[in-house]
Amino acid sequence: MTNHWVDIKNANVIIVMGGNAAEAHPCGFKWVTEAKAHNQATLVVIDPRFTRSASVADLYAPVRTGTDIAFLGGVINYLLSKDRIQHEYVKSYTNASFLVAEGFTFEDGLFSGYDAGGRKYDRSTWAYQMGPDGYALVDETLQHPRCVFQLMKQHFSRYTPEAVSNICGTPRETFLKVCEIIATTSVPDRTLTFLYALGWTQHSTGSQIIRTAAMVQLLLGNIGMAGGGVNALRGHSNIQGLTDLGLLSDLLPGYLTLPREQETDFKAYLDKRSIKPLRPGQMSYWQNYPKFHVSLMKSWYGAAATKENNFCFDWLPKLDKVYDILQVFELMAQGQLNGYFCQGFNPLAAVPNKAKLVKALSKLKYLVVIDPLATETSCFWENHGEYHDVDSAKISTEVLRLPSTCFAEENGSLTNSGRWLQWHYQGARPPGEAKADTEIMAGIFLKIRELYRKEGGPFPDAIANLTWNYQIPAAPSPEELAMEYNGKALEDLTDPKDPTKVILKKGQQLDGFGQLKDDGSTACGCWIYSGAWTEKGNLMARRDNSDPSGLGNTLNWGFAWPANRRVLYNRASCDTTGKPWDPKRKLVYWDGAKWAGADVPDLKPDAAPADGMGPFIMQAEGVGRLFALDKMAEGPFPEHYEPFETPIDTNPLHPKVISNPAARVFRGDADEFGKGQQYPYAATTYRLTEHFHYWTKHTRLSSIMQPEQFVEIGEELAREKGIRGGDKVRVWSHRGSIKAVAVVTKRIRPLKVNGKTVHHVGIPIHWGFKGVARKGYLANVLTPFVGDANTQTPEFKSFLVNLEKA
Amino acid sequence: MNVTRRRFLKICATGLGSSSVVALGFPVTKAQAEVRAFKLARSSETRNTCPYCSVSCGLIMHSLGDRAKNAESSIFHIEGDPDHPVNRGTLCPKGAGLVDFIHSPNRLKYPEYRAAGSDRWQRISWDEAFARVARWMKDDRDRNFLAKNAAGATVNRWLTTGFLAASASSNEAGYLTHKVIRNLGVLAFDNQARV
Ligand code: SF4
Ligand code: SF4
After folding, report:
1. Which value, to the nearest 10 degrees, does the dihedral of the CA atoms of residues A554, A555, A557, A562 take?
2. Which of A362, A351, A364 is nearest to A395 (CA)?
3. Cβ pair A541, B49 in contact under 8 A
C-alpha cells in the first residue's frame, strides 16, 4: 500500500476492484465502513460477482474477468476527454510534459520494437527525447504532439464507453456513472483510494492493470494524499516483509538487484543502479545504491568483504534468467532439478496445473518440506483416491518433512500491507519437537558448513565466511537478527558537516539508512528496514496508539518503512509552494525552513519548494510516470489484452493480437490452453471469508463453517444446464476435472460481451486432500500455466471451463 | 480509580460472584469458595499478530500456566487486541478460529522421512534430519555448482536445487533464510509474492 489501513477512512471515494475486502480482509474493510459513516464516502465495487463488498456499495458495476485495463482505460479516456484532471498536479508531479522519442509507435496492438519469435520487445524506442545537457526535454504547455500527455490522449481515445461496454460487459450507463464518481475527486480537496488484491495481480496483464490505476490516480492528483493512493491488500501476513527482504530469484534485501552474468565489473554494476537525475535538481535517491549494497555485503561477509575484493561482489550468484516459480516447475517437469525445499509454502495447491506439478515433483531426487502442518505438497506421493490418484510405489522422490513453529510459538516481526513492522511475542511452546524456521535454517547451514570444512568442495568461500556471530549458533535469536538487518556502525561515524563530532560509536545500532556508507564502515542487512532497531531499542514493539492529527498516522505504533513514513510520496500532498492542497489533509508542509507535519516528510527535509525537487524521489525525473519508459515488458502505456483463455476467442481492439504479446508461454503449456467453443464459460478462482488459502481446512472452526467444496453459478446458466442448487456438478478445463456442489446464485449474472452471452463460474479454492474439512479437489487442477509478463504471477483469475450435472 | 482491563475482569469475577450469591441468601463467606473465577482472569496474556491476511490484526493470546521455565503453558483463547489501531479488538471468522490452528490435529511434531517408492512416513531425529538434508544438498551442489559460465565469467551459481520461502514466517526468519540460501548460490528462489 502507498497508504495504510487506517488511512482509508480519509477517502471520499473508495473503489474496490480486483479484490473483495469485505470477505478477504474483513477487519481492514472496517475503515471503508468508517469512511462511509464519518466521511460520507462513496463506495464503488467493480467485480464479476456481486460480492459482500458489493452488497454494501453505493454502486456495483459488473465486469468480465480479465478486462480491467479496458475498464480503467475507459476511465482515463473519460477524464482526459472531459478535462476532469488535477491540472497543476499533472503538470508538476507527472511526466505528462516529457517528450517521447520519435521512434516510439503503437499500431494494431503492438508497440515499436516487437520480436514475434522471441515474444519480447526491443524497448530502445520507449524513451524520452534528451537535450544536449543530458536532461530529458519537456513542454510545460502539454501541447507538443510528442509529449506524454498528447500521446496518452491519443492512445486511450479508443477506449470509448461503447468499446468498454463491448469488451467488459458492463452496461454503458453504469460505466459512465462510475466515471463520474471517480472524476469528482479531481479537485484538490477530494480523494479516491483504490483497494485491490489478487483479482488484479493474477492475470497475464496484472502489472499493467495496477499501472492503469496508478495513472488514474496521478491524473486525479490522489497519490501522496491522505485517503488516496494505490493500495494493494496483500494476501499473507508477511508477504510484504518477504518481498521487502528480497526472497525472490533476482533480488537482494531492500529491492537491491542481483547482477546478471554479463555484469562482471563491480563498478559498472553499481553505476548502472546509481541512477542519475533526468531533470535538474532531482534527488534520484537510488544514487545511494552503493551505500546500501556495500553495507549488505559487510553484514553478510564481515571482515572478509573489503574494498580490495569489491566487497565480495564475485561471491554473489549471477543470473542467466529469472527463476520464478513457473520457470522452476517447468525445469522440474523436464527433470532438470534434483532438490526442492518448501518452507511454509504448499505449491502443489498454490501453483497452476496440478497434473504438471505432480509430474514435476515426482522427478525430484529429494524434497524437503518445512511446515507447521501436514500439507498436500509433503504428501504428494500419497494416494487419496479420486482427489489425488497417484501410485506411491512409482514415485521415487525421497521426502523429508520438518515440523516448524507457528506464530504463537515465536518472537518476531511481520510487515503488514501498510508497511508497518509489528513485533509479536511467544505465548506457548511448540508441539512435540517442532522448531522455529530460524533454528531449522541454522541447523541445515551449520551441517553444510561442517561438511565443506571436512571435505572441501566447489567455491566454499561464501559458506565459510558467512557472518554467524549469534550467541547460540544453532538458534539465532529474532532479536539478534532484527538488529542485524537494522545495521550498525563498524567504525566511529562522524557528522558529515563537522568531522570532529562522533554521531555513532563503533558497534552502535544505526538510526536509519541516512547513515549508511559505501566504504565498508557500516553494516546493514536490509536498508529499508534500517531504523527498526536503533540505540533506542526495538521500535517495532512500540504500542502508543495516539493519533494527534486525527489522520490515523500513529507514528509511535510499531515502525513503518521507509524511515517510519506512513504515507508514501506525501510531498505530493502539497502544491509547488509547499502548501497542502487540502488544509484538512495536512500530512506535511513547508514551514519556511524545513518540511514538517503529521507524517515523516518524503523529501529531503530542507529542500525548499522553490528549488523544484519533485515528490517522487526514487525516480530519476522526480515525477510520477504516466509513460513507463522501458520498465514494463509489454509497453509504456497499458493496453487491453484478453486472458490466454478467452470466451470470445478474439480481441475486439485488435483481432490479430489477442493476448499479452510479451507474456512467456512454455511450449507444452500453449497446447494445454482451451478455446471458447469447447470451454464456453469464464472461470475465476477466489477466497471465502471463513477460510485462509489451504491452511484453515486444518482448523476445526473454519471447517465447520465451510465444510465442503462448492462452485458458484448464476441462475440463468443453471436453468440452461438443468442444475439445481445442491446438485453435484463436474467442472473441467483443458487440464483436468473436478466435482463439487453447485451453489446457484443471483450474485453472478450473464454479461453481453462482443455480441455474445458470457457466463462466469466461480471457484473457491480452499479444499484439498489433507485437513479436517471434507476432502475435495485442489482447484488448480483447472488453472492454466501462464503468468504476468513482468512478475510471472499466474493467471488464476481468468480461464475457461465447461460444466455439467455430475 | 484507575482500573486496567485485566483488573476489571478480576473485580467482576469476585464482585459478581459475591453479590449474586448474597441475593440467593447463602452465607457469603462459605459460598465464595464455590464460585469459579472467569477463566480469563487467571490467564497469562501475550500480544501477537494474526498470521493470516495482511491486515495483521493485533491479538491477545490467553494461556494457562505462568510461563515459568518448567510449567507448560497452553493457549486456550485468542481475541482481538482492543488497543490495536487497525482492528481495534475485532477479528474476522478466520482469526476467530486461530486457537484451532495452534491445536490442529494436523500439526507436525517430529521430523519424518519417506523413502523412495514407500507409502509411509518414518519418524527420525533432528540430528538425522539435518545430516540427511546437508548430505543431499552438498552432493547435489558439488556435482552441479557452476563457477564459470561458457563465456568464462564468474557466475557462482547452483541451479539444480530450489527453495520456496514462507510469507507467513517472520522478517527475522526470512532474513536468515535469504542469507543462507543465497550464499549457497541458489537462484531458483521464490516466495508467495507471486501467488
Ligand atoms: S455474531 Fe459475531 S458479529 Fe454478531 S455479535 Fe456475535 S461476535 Fe459480534
Ligand atoms: S483476523 Fe481476519 S482480517 Fe484480521 S488479520 Fe486475521 S485474517 Fe485478516
Report:
1. 120
2. A362
3. no
Residue B69 and residue B118 in one domain: no
Same domain, B86 and B142: no
Taking the C-alpha atoms of residue A654 and residue A660, their distance in angstroms, rounded to an integer, is 12
Distance between CA atoms of residues A155 and A104, nearest Å = 12
Q: Could you tell me the CATH number of the domain that includes residue B62?
A: 2.20.25.90
Here the cell at position A723 is 442444475
Question: Which pLDDT value is given to residue B71?
Answer: 67
B77: in domain: yes
Q: Say how far apart CA A295 and CA A292 lie, in whole Å.
A: 5
CA gap A561, A549 in Å, rounded: 20
Rounded distance between C-alpha atoms, residue A29 and residue B55, angstroms? 9
Do the beta carbons of residue A777 and residue B180 sit within 8 Å? no
CATH number given to A325-465: 3.40.50.740
Q: Calculate mean pLDDT across residues A781-801.
A: 98
Q: A159 — phi, psi (to 5°)?
A: -90, 65
Considering only the beta carbons, identify the residue of B96, B136, B170 that sits closest to A413: B170
* Average per-residue pLDDT for chain A: 98
pLDDT tens per residue across span A349-371: 999 999 999 999 999 999 999 99
Q: Is residue B107 in some structural domain?
A: no
Q: How far apart are CA A600 and CA A514, in angstroms?
A: 14
- B57 CB under 6 A from ligand 2? yes
% of chain B exceeding 90 in pLDDT: 69
Statement to judge: residues B61 and B97 lie in one domain: yes
Whether B190 maps to a domain, the answer reads: yes
pLDDT tens figures, A291-333: 999 999 999 999 999 999 999 999 999 999 999 999 999 999 9
| Region for residue A83 given its phi and psi (left: phi exceeds 0; alpha: psi -120 to 50; beta: otherwise) | left
B98 lines ligand 2 (CB under 6 A): no
CA pseudo-torsion sign A753, A758, A762, A763: negative
* Residue owning grid cell 460480492: A51
Range of the domain at B148: 112-194
Q: How many domains does chain B have?
A: 3
Answer yes or no: is the C-beta of B96 below 6 A from any ligand 2 atom.
no
Q: Do A245 and B87 touch (CB under 8 A)?
A: no
Contacts of B5 in chain A (CB under 8 A): none
Cα(A701) to centroid(ligand 2), Å: 15
| Closest residue CA from atom 4 of ligand 2 | B57
Q: Flag if A328 and B188 touch (Cβ within 8 Å).
A: yes
Q: Is the CB of B80 under 6 A from ligand 2?
A: no
Res A261: pLDDT: 98
Residues B26 and B49 in one domain: no
Mean pLDDT within A77-85: 98
Are B48 and B27 in a shared domain?
no
Is there a contact between A76 and A159 (Cβ–Cβ < 8 Å)?
yes
Q: Does domain A667-805 have CATH number 1.10.3860.10?
A: no
Dihedral class, residue A781 (left if φ above 0, else alpha if ψ from -120 to 50, else beta): alpha
pLDDT at residue B1 is higher than 80: no
> Do B118 and B80 have their domain in common?
no
The answer on B137 and B66 residing in a single domain is: no
Assigned superfamily of A1-113+129-235+567-637: Dimethylsulfoxide Reductase, domain 2 (3.40.228.10)
Region A525-542: mean pLDDT is 98
Q: For residue B173, is it within any domain?
A: yes
Who contacts A14 (Cβ-Cβ below 8 Å, separation ≥6)? Answer: A8, A32, A35, A36, A41, A42, A43, A44, A192, A193, A195
Domain with CATH 2.40.40.20 in chain A: 667-805
Mean pLDDT of A110-115: 98
What's the mean pLDDT in A741-754? 98
**Given this model, what pLDDT does residue B67 score?**
59
